[in-house]
Amino acid sequence: MVLKAITFDFWNTLASDREPVRVREIAAEKMVTHIRGEGTKISSKNMQEAFAECRKLCYSYQEDKGIDLTPKEQLDWILEYFNLKPKPMIWNKLFDDYTTSLLDIPPRFVDELGSILKELGSKYKMAIICNTGRTPGWVIRSIVRECSLDGFFDAQIFSNEVGVAKPNPYIFEIAARMLNVQNNETLHIGDDIHTDVGGALGAGYRTGWYNPKGLCREVKCHYVFKDFSDILKLL
To answer: What is the mean pLDDT of the chain?
Structure first.
């Protein structure tokens, strides 16, 4: 079967956090400021602890159940964690604080990504398939657009928008339909062995494990890419 499309994981594949701890601190500090304004004393450390517990739950939903715990649901979980019931106006501010801190320190994209995508785009349809955590799809879209990379992708699929998450095969089915290709005509490239490689295999995709650290592991996949330039060589 001729390869017609390539889909990419976003986090730790196309891009990685520059300062993940500081991004969390920024969100926590902003949220605590608004909560204190309502007369409740919660420290930034306490808020970050709640983030960590919520993140575990979010990953469990995605990796074990194949469904998404949306940023809205995450914020509601955190507020319940502290037994808080803010007014709608404050809830909206907290939601902005929680979801947009990545805009203060945008992620770092793979070196020479634009030129690599340009060459691949001359031969294949392309899409992003991203499991979102605290950061929703619209924020990632804005970052991709700001870096002038959005024009290379025919579709961008985010778990918080479609309700399902990798490794659920349905999110891969959504991508194939949006690209108007068959699953077995599509290659998915990602760093996570379970959600990316395993999920794509389960959906009938061809699979590429992005392994920049050169980990020595036996992984059932069609390709292994240590560097993004390897994609051009192997395809």
So the answer is: 95
